[in-house]
Write a structure and sequence with these properties.
Layout lengths: L2 H14 L6 E12 L5 E7 L6 E7 L10 E2 L1 H5 L5 E7 L10 E13 L7 E8 L9 E6 L6
Antiparallel strand pairs: 1-6, 1-8, 2-5, 2-7, 3-6, 4-5
């Protein structure tokens, strides 16, 4: 293969691979607010018509939920998705379960640089220590240090 052929091949490959400037990273904090102790939760998160690549899902601020929550890793590993469902539960004693406004997870996303995401969250369920559904609200905020 001639040097010119190698140069053209490398130039073509570099052109096809998106640069970091073509993408933006965003971190979203997800909060659940309930007056009752929270033992389990599940929510759906979407970015509107924008496809997102989930690059990380981390645990929240409560020791009762000390590991990363559950989500469909296979679907997110395939690339860009339009939604993600995230859930977690704790078998901790009711006395140590959190109540009030608690950050349950932080989602780390990669979007196209020109994307105009319409982030939405929908609480599917929140449950207390006894397994019964409890009243709760969900909210999202950009994390400190997020590019947005």
């Amino acid at each position: 293969m001639s040097r010119l052929s190698v140069f053209i091949l490398l130039l073509t490959a570099a052109w096809a691979v998106p640069s970091m400037a073509d993408e933006q990273f965003v971190s979203i904090d997800v909060f659940i607010d309930s007056e009752q102790a929270l033992a389990a939760w599940q929510f759906e998160f979407t970015a509107g018509a924008t496809l997102m690549q989930v690059v990380g899902v981390e645990n929240g601020q409560s020791g009762a939920f000390s590991t990363a929550p559950y989500y469909d890793r296979e679907a997110t590993n395939l690339g860009r998705v339009d939604r993600i469902v995230v859930a977690d539960y704790s078998l901790a004693d009711g006395a140590v379960l959190p109540s009030g406004r608690i950050r349950v997870t932080t989602l780390h996303l990669m979007l196209s640089a020109d994307a105009v995401a319409d982030f939405q969250s929908r609480l599917i369920v929140a449950a207390g220590y006894d397994g019964n559904e409890i009243e709760a609200d969900i909210s999202i905020e950009f994390s400190a240090g997020s590019e947005k």
